[in-house]
Amino acid sequence: MSTKKNLPIGVFDSGVGGLTVTRAITELLPHEQIIYLGDTARVPYGNRGADTVRRYALNASKLLINEGIKALVIACNTATAHGLEALKHAYPNIPIIGVISPVSREAVMRTERGAVAIIGTRGTISSKCYPAEIQNLLTQLNLDKTIALEQIACPLFVPLAEEGWLQGEVPEKVAMSYLEPLKKTSVDTLILGCTHYPMLRDTIAVTLDSIMPHHVTLLDCAQSTSRDLAGVLSELDLARDTTSQPLPTKERIRFLVTDEPSGFMTTAIRFFGGPIQRPEHVNIIMEDDTNADL
Ligand code: DGL
Question: What is the pTM of this model?
């Protein structure tokens, strides 16, 4: 019987970063199928203006929704920052999960010193969506806690992660120059607020160890977003039947890219951490510019 439950989950990012989230989804929800869209023709989103990113997010979502999906994960902080509200408005009948709220909740609960740092793209940091979300959560959860926030844009981390320059002198110098201002703070929790940054986790951790007098916990969006997705699917009775044997991971994800597929595989395998199916090329839908003012 073909029901809505059996439809795949749609996941999109500007390129490969969302694969760090996709990996976590496949691990937590081994019976689910995924269609992953990498908007590789228009990457990076991180340095673009809010309206442009919102329009790109609407285009990417429309493409996935036309493929037939039961839920949508925006596996990109920049697209979540600029596009989440517009997408929820445009598609009220499909659950849409962004990456900012789940990891913010985790940070609010985890910080002991009441000091959290957020690193992300220029777009994510300038949107101030993390401070707004953390403030909302403090109110919503009725927590008698104040949290000092530090925000740092780290635009060079995206090309370093894509090029595979993850360790050594260059990434260490870049990390030091971005993160050094934190040594004057009591930050004990740092949100990797870009889905590319988990690739640089070791270098970021070593840098923080060398400048901070106490341990700093690094949080990425992958696990918390997958847990939220699992919760939403079960709440809406949209989770697939888990009694049968799950398919191998590689067979559960279909990949779509908006630029030429060649070149995607090597980087994608690194970000995903395992073999993937060959991506299919798709043309992004541009006609919903009418939605650009949402
Ligand atoms: N992975 C995207 C994010 O989480 C950023 C990459 C880009 O600049 O396109 O914000």
Answer: 0.94
* Residue 41 alpha carbon to ligand 1 centre in Å: 13
In terms of domains, do 8 and 90 share one?
yes
**Residue 121 alpha carbon, nearest atom of ligand 1:** 10
Q: What is the pLDDT of residues 160-172, one digit of tens each?
A: 999 999 999 999 9
Contacts of 224 (CB under 8 A, 6+ apart): 102, 103, 105, 106
| 8-state DSSP, 274 | S
Check which CATH number belongs to the domain holding 108 and give it: 3.40.50.1860
- Domain hosting 165: range is 100-222
Centroid of ligand 1 to alpha carbon of 57 (angstroms): 12
Over residues 233-252, the pLDDT tens digits come to 999 999 999 998 888 888 89
The domain tally of the chain equals: 2
Mark whether 134 and 176 lie in a shared domain.
Answer: yes
196 C-beta closer than 6 A to ligand 1:
yes
Do residues 218 and 241 share a domain? no
DSSP state of 155: T
Pocket lining: 56 vs ligand 1, CB cutoff 6 Å:
no
Q: How many CB atoms lie within 10 A of CB 205?
A: 16
Is any atom of ligand 1 closer than 6 Å to the C-beta of 162? no
